[in-house]
Each structure stands twice: as structure tokens, then as C-alpha cells.
Amino acid sequence: MHYVAALMALLACLGIASSPEAQQLSDLAYASDGRDAHRLDLFLPREKSRAAIVVFVHGGAFLQGGRKEYDSVGRALADEGLAVAVVSYRLYPEANADGAAQDVARAIAWLIAHAAGFGLSGHNVYLVGHSAGAQIATVIATNPKYLAAEGIGLGAIRGVFAVAGAYDVRDLSGEPDSWQRVDGHIYGETAEARSAFSPAVHIDPAAPPTVTACGTEDDPYSCNRATSFAEALRAAGVPATTIAERGADHIGMLHALVDPKDPLNAALLYFISHLEVP
After folding, report:
1. Burial class of residue 54 in the structure, from the number of CB atoms within 10 Å of its CB (0-12 exposed, 13-18 middle, 19+ buried)
2. What is the pTM of this model?
3. List of residues 6+ apart from 43 with CB closer than 8 A
4. Can you tell me the distance from the alpha carbon of 83 to that of 112, in angstroms, rounded to the nearest whole number?
């Protein structure tokens, strides 16, 4: 959680050039309750008919963040030909991790149902998440209950690109006591309860191909988490691989993801255009 303030500062100064041809549609409600947390911003490239839809799920430890802080992500990827939905979702204490995943699943279903109205195909949807957003994306992609509640199946998602996420939160003992107390409320008070939000533990074989990306300068266990999750996916029959971004810390991974000069950005575009997972 210590990185949240630094992440907000980075987003404020990313300064990635944006093409005036990319169109931004702001504050689209994916639920009818009027909550700002149930809205998304959609960034459309010039050529829409064949553009993949990327649902970007932000991080912030389930405590902070929202779509407005991540405009630079949507603009940068739209400039590269992707249609990008930057999604807000309820945060703690309004909702726990399960509630956040329910929100994002609802946003995905809304996008698929309304894609044609934006000149897009609802059959070309990918999930991309950073930090807590990577955990949300992978939970939705490995546990069919979230999309099933919205009337769609795991097959609606073509692929997942998960960046700097946590994929097994059953054991919180390595965290400071103050973090454990908060995460207990967010994930559940027992290991058994937290297993429900540990995508490495519950993997449906119908889960889509997945890339897990980690930074070598992130916390010491980041790449172990990414690699272990990819191994668990493959053991369940799901195509998966891991990318280790050399020299990148937790925040730097987000910058690398949208930097057109960075290998991580190139890997994301290649994954989406070729859907190849070694």
C-alpha cells in the first residue's frame, strides 16, 4: 500500500503524447444506480471496426484510484490502435475484493452488449490489469461465477495480460500487522475465505490464455508470484507465460506497459494481435 501515493504521482506526469484522432467517451454508466464508481471511460482509436477491446483494471490496493487517474493509459493504448475501457469500481470500505470483481464483471458484460454501438466487436475483448487490477482480472478470468452472474461465459474473454499482481492471498503473515488487518477485511479473515480471491487456487480449464508480467525490481516475491501462477494455469491446461521486465519496480511496470518504446508494451500488442502464449 505504500506505493499508492507514488503511483498517483507517476500517473500525473506520464506525459505520453496523445493523438487528436483518438476519441474519448467519458463517464459511461455500466450500471443504473448512478454511482460514479460504476462508470467507465472509453478511448477509441481511429480505426474501430477491427480494434480489440481492452478492459483496463487499475490498481491501488483496493483502497484508492479510479478511471480519471488513468486517462493516460487509455489514450496511450488507443494511439496504438486499441479500444480501451478504463473502468472504475467500488473500493474498500464500500466494497471488498469480491464486490470489486463483481463490478468489473458487470462492466465487461456492458461493454460486450454495447460494443456494436461504438463500432466495435464484442467478440474481441481482453483484460489488462495492474497490481490489484491484475488480481481482479485474473479472478474474473479463472472463476466463471463472476461473468456467469452477468449472463456470459469465460469464452467472452480472449486473453488476460496481468501486470504486477498477487495471485494467492491465503497467507498474509508476511505483511505488517496493519496491512493484515485491512487485507483481512478486503479478502476475508481466514485463509479459507481468502482462497476464493486467490486465482492460483481456483482455475477453470476454460480460462483464457494469460500473460503474467513482473518487474525484477518490484518486491522480492513479485516474479515468483507471477511464475507460480503461470505454472498453475498451465497445469490446468490454460496457455500461460511470464514476462520479467528487467529493472522495473511496481510503479515502473505501469509506465512500461504503455510506453511504445518499451518491450512490455510491445509484448502486450503482440499478445493481442497474435494471441500467442508459449
Report:
1. buried
2. 0.91
3. 22, 23, 24, 25, 74, 75, 77, 78, 83, 84, 85, 86
4. 12
